[in-house]
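Recap for those who missed Tuesday's class. We walked through two folding examples back to back. For each one, the amino acid string is listed first and its predicted structure tokens come directly after. Nothing is annotated here on purpose, so try labeling regions yourself before you check the end of the notes.
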Amino acid sequence: MIPTPAPTRRRRLRWRAAIAALVLAVCSTLLVGGVATAADDYTQSVTSLNATQAQIAFTPTTAALYVDVHYTGTAQGQQNVRMTLSGGTWRTTVSGLSSGTVIDYWFTYEKSGPQYDTPHFSYTHGGTTPPQTVATPTFSPAGGNYTSAQTVTISTSTAGSTIRYTVDGSTPTASSTLYSGPISVPTTRTVNAIGIKSGLTTSAVGSASYTIGSVPTGCTTQPDVPNFGPNTRIFDPGMSAATIQAQLDTDFNNQKDTLTAQMADRRIAHLFKPGAYSVHDDVGYYTSVAGLGQNPGDVVINGAITVDAFNASDQGVALQNFWRSAENMAVNPIGGSNRWAVAQAAPFRRMDIRGNLQLYPASYGFASGGYIADTKVSGETASISQQQWYTRDSNLGSWAGGVWNMVFSGTPGAPATTFPNPPETTLATTPVSRDVPYLYIDSAGKYRVFTPSLRTNASGASWANGSTPGTSIPMSQFYVVKSGDTASSINSALTAGCNLFFTPGVYHLNQTLNVNRANTVVLGIGYPTLIPDNGVNAMQVADVDGVRIKGLLFDAGTTNSAALLTVGASGSSANHAANPTTLQDVFFRIGGSIAGHATTSLVVNSNNVIIDHIWAWRADHGNAGTWGWTQATADTGLLVNGNNVLATGLFVEHYQKSQVIWNGQGGKTIFFQNEMPYDVPNQASWNRPSGKAGYPAYKVGDNVTSHEAWGLGSYNFFNVNPSVSAYNAFEVPNNANVRFHSLCTVSLNYQGVITHVINDTGAVTPPGTVPVNVVNYP
């Protein structure tokens, strides 16, 4: 981020905040039996089946006990029909239609007890109805682990269609092998298939992965008190404070320097057993600091956990304070305040700050944004010179400051929504959330991993009124990944049914890591870094329930990968609302350390995935020869194809086309921070196929009918060629159910411009690093 004039500290009148909070509460209330005012509760559609029939579909975000559709426009008068549930979607077929028939329809649905009515919708049969899509092929038996070869049947429910398939994991086309009968799967492989019918749209890709051999019997022979490798420091309260402090200082001196440590391979974790410590931990690059208690108060630091503008080369700013974390501790700060002046990829989770929290450098220089979750701060949290920030499911004594985009959800003590002056956006609750899995020691001295429960409409820290709800997994069910482990050994552990615990280190992969088992936990400490060496995708997660991935850094290799992390195969369709996959503190880097290449960093094909704090970054600086328009290439940071995906804390920067492309229905984003690529060489090389200037940072697919986002900022700094411009930062379909709130654009130091904020709305970015704001769209 590029420094801009420092903001003044703003004071707020209590009556103003109270009135705003009251208005927000009234506007967001849904009454039993009333009209559902938020289309994010559901998606609905009507599809023409033939000349005389159409199918009405309704997919609730939260599973419903019943859905009734009411419609008029047929010869029978008003009809009231209990819909039929299949695969999470309720459907009803309406017959007796002719071209031009207009159907007026609406729904009544149950949600967690109460009943709601939707607004009325209209559908005209024939003429303008888009082509019907062939149903996605399905497989019998389903993909999974089998002891012997399987005979697999592929089918589609669309009569008269043909099926084309591949068995090497590639995407099938109209020229792929024609399916004519059951196929043999003698060895481990992935089968992909599409349905094709003349006059209809080709289906999405159906996929099934088969592991042939021994069925996993569970993870065995893993110790409950494992060896966490040479880069993990474990401190005991019985150790002298001087001994602990000496180790902390040694690690910090090795990890502190922005010029030499930022792209180094050293990785460190500081783990504190339950007890009290009088120490001061300055946190450098690639360092995780965490308590080993089951709750934050089990480890008490009488001192500080600090990040600041430590180096002379920083010149008093914290714009490059990346890749460091603090988690699961209480801090009684020296002098009453703890300083955490960070930029991206520096999460602050499950912390109990018994005093004030300062998110800016001691010099009051700039910092470029961060993330807090599941935390309590008894005093004031002050952002001051922080350019943007997101706080989720936490409790604050008070808040002060704000530059461009400060966002809160489920955070008592947060300021009311006042965007753009001050630039603060607050949601009373977080729609769906789940705290991170974390390591702790039980009363018998054995290590375990705690997996918190799913929360809906959460507010406040999960442990605010006692222990965090959830379940505990013994370390005997984890394979501890350490230096010397290969992709083969890691995959063998996954096949055996193990969870993964990555210790601090850099891991080169010559094959994809395949996470195929539901509820697998992949947990890293000390920024373990995964590098694909030969163009493979670093990790693939199957379309299964409840996988949890936390604390990994994916670094693109020198041979281009199609993706670094993929969740669900193309065409995934299962509903995971009750037990979603979660990606938390998962970071991606293209270049900077090595000259990396990956077309897309993260692809999400599964439904209901929670993306909770990611930073996907194509480097704008780093080691010589590792960054630049041709040295580090990547089109897109995040591609979402799944439905009902939620992103809370989304940081994506510098990719060469759209930073985020969102094709799934029912998506939500709470907080988005973006910088367009700095290094565009000329306008012609960056224009869209349509001819418009530049690529939008956040693109919602043209066929999406429901999407909502809050608190989004996109900035440009075209320093290689300041004549470059982008037509807009956000591009979305013009649909009443595609809604954006609290958006801003900024031209940093006026190096090029963004002409509009969203679609054709919003003014051109002016000189002076001044934001252009749009409060709501449409």
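Example two. Treat it independently of the first, because the proteins are unrelated.
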Amino acid sequence: MRRTTILAVSLGLCAALTATLPATADTPDAPAARATAAEDTAEAVWLDARTVAWPRAAQTTSARLLAPAQEAERQEAAKIRPGSATRALRLAPGKLTPAQLKKFPHLAAYDAWRVDPRDRRLAAEVLRGRLVAQQLAADGTVTAATAVQTAGVLDDLYADAAQRRALGATFDRAGRPTLSVWAPTARRVALDLDGRTVPMRRDAASGVWTVTGERAWKDREYAYDVTVYAPEAGRTVTNTVTDPYAVALTTDSRRSLVTDLDDPKLAPPGWKNLRKPKAVPLRDAQIQELHVRDFSASDPTNAHPGTYRAFTDRSSDGARHLRRLADAGTTHVHLLPVFDIATIPEKDAKAPDCDLPALPADSPRQQECVTASAAEDAYNWGYDPLHYTVPEGSYATDPEGPGRTREFREMVGSLNRDGLGVVMDVVYNHTAASGQADTSVLDRIVPGYYQRLLADGSVANSTCCANTAPENAMMGRLVVDSVVTWAKQYKVDGFRFDLMGHHPKANMVAVRKALDALTPARDGVDGKRIILYGEGWTFGEVADDARFVQASQANMAGTGIATFSDRARDAVRGGGPFDEDPGVQGFASGLYTDPNDSPANGTRAEQRARLLHYQDLIKVGLTGNLADYRLTDSTGRRTTGAGVDYNGAPAGYAERPGDALAYADAHDNETLFDALAFKLPAGTPAADRARMQILAMATATLSQGPALSQAGTDRLRSKSLDRNSYDSGDWFNALHWDCRQGNGFGRGLPPAADNQDKWEYAKPLLTTVSVGCAEIEASAAAHRDLLTLRATEPAFSLRTTAEVQRALSFPLSGPEETPGVVTMRLADLVVVLNATPDTQDQRLTSATGTRYALHPVQARGSDPVVKDAAYDRRTGTFTVPARTVAVFRAG
């Protein structure tokens, strides 16, 4: 997930309120209390039908919830007039129960207010209009007033019944559709069917509105007209909005379509009996991360550039490359978001109006031109969801109606036939917008429910957009329902969850359980073979389990859902993407052993100490980030994976191999080649840059557990030093399968918004660093050798911590450890990662007398340098050339 705002619209809740209000329920002529202004906040939290949580103001003796019986449009100061009809729910001081504190831990310091039992019958009605909470002193003076957060009470009143109701469009055996939408606070919902208004009926128990139509409704356009009180607007509005459960849309998401995904006309040839690739356990997954446009937009051999159908052009250079990776051991292609995206025009997208190739390699003009058309071009990573369960239309040759469904299925089928599973990158943690914005879907139907609200009632945007609240029952259900639909209807083989730490662990476990229940006989897919992984970072308003037990790295251990491990990644690369000086080095970028001239690396002693600690992080990564794995660290101390420090956190957090996913680069931040360009000494030869790239990738490929690499990393892919290319167009994101087109380096200074502070470092590199076909093809071939080696050696697929403990060791740790070299013994294998610019000898006395030879895959492989690796049986010494990963096998 990128760390730059895509689009965020803050949800302001209630306007200032000054009013004289009655003190008892349903008594419009009760004596008036003195008014006080309520800020544009919603600080009271209605937890359930019985309880409101709200800090108690000084001198408060009682409280109440108030709703005008007849709303007025917002006027100056948004006054409720003296004597106007209201409904009031009386509140008495109380305490939060243990169950409430467990469900809402972030409200532990709040006071509880109990709803008078006589007034609880009013809850459902007052939730459908403007709602104000007041605290009062003994003399009736209002001591505090605020709007109210209502997600908790909506779950309490409606969620159990709503969970049992189908949503979206469903079809009976006769083909008649029923359309259903959850809108418990709406005054009215009507179906807008091709411009004709059709009334819908509300179920009081669930808050679901439904209408059943005729067979002729199939494939027709629709939307919902939802009349609902919108706190942001301060009045009741009627929103015409597409269906959150839509499975098909018209171009640019203007309207939903009454579509049956079981319709045979939506299935490409062979879809019903599609043979899936051989299932692999998560611990063995080798994943290639790929953006749909990147795959083919710059490939002149592809007949359908930039589209789903590009994957069906089996004669293209890109398709041939993926097949070579699959033959070598890659198991899955991970597609960056392919659901309906808010910010990409699905037709008539604009292209940069410049002669970009004619400009100098270090010019700022390329980025100026690309940025000028970025909002209207066909490119975005897509982390700005609009509809979660519809394929993105800009990737379809026909984005209208069923075209995108059929073409998405063609893509899945083609990749599956090439032996590759398809993983979807899904983004349920935020929406592109919230409130009454035109690009909001969820919040225009149930305002204030689907987004996570902060203490003042504003929408949290720690994910860089409007955060969703999957801890709320119906948002959590939407996540599960959407994933199951993709699995059943599109035969997707895996899901990668963006910012998964912003989900409750319980939500992710529910996803896993729902998928595990899918069977080939009933559902057409085996859900147990579907892999799940995600970003388990912990930050923002949910950090450290503040609101719920998060789906974070440590918490997800043992669940069968993997999390990205940043430990070895940082050690391999060195520093971080936000370093003021990008020259901070790491294991694979020359720290201590091949220093650059950056003062940010510290003294020689500091470099050596940091490098050895980085090697400890890499060792833990090679075990699969196991928390309980016992090892000797570089200082000679006996410890465990959890005992190795990673910025104040345990380096090891996994319970078993498969809990942590290893990687050296992904779409976020600079590509691995670009990071090494910043960090390796400026005069590093092209061949050595390529060798360091492969060595860096090997730390992930040869680890226990799954591994991921960004598409093109094996081909030295560059984005011209762009740290955040989410909206940098095809120009900076170009992915070349033909080495004669280059690797993307030197396409101009990267876009100013995220990179200008690094231009002084980038400019001299863009005109001096280069690689050619020799380096690109050698790198790709060497990576395939390592994939093959891993796939054919069972020792890289151990199941438990105990198995890893028995089979895997680091015999040269402690005082014997060589800075810049990691040596691992794994069953009958010895793996040496030599990141130094010199040949290195690694003597293992325990290996003396045992026959070892370079692994046959490397001995017969593409890299002539590794073939110079040698072993002396008499002394147990393994000799490995500079900047080389060598694997030896006993026997």
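Answers for example two:
The longest helix spans residues 773-792.
Confidence is low (pLDDT under 50) at residues 1-37, 71-83.
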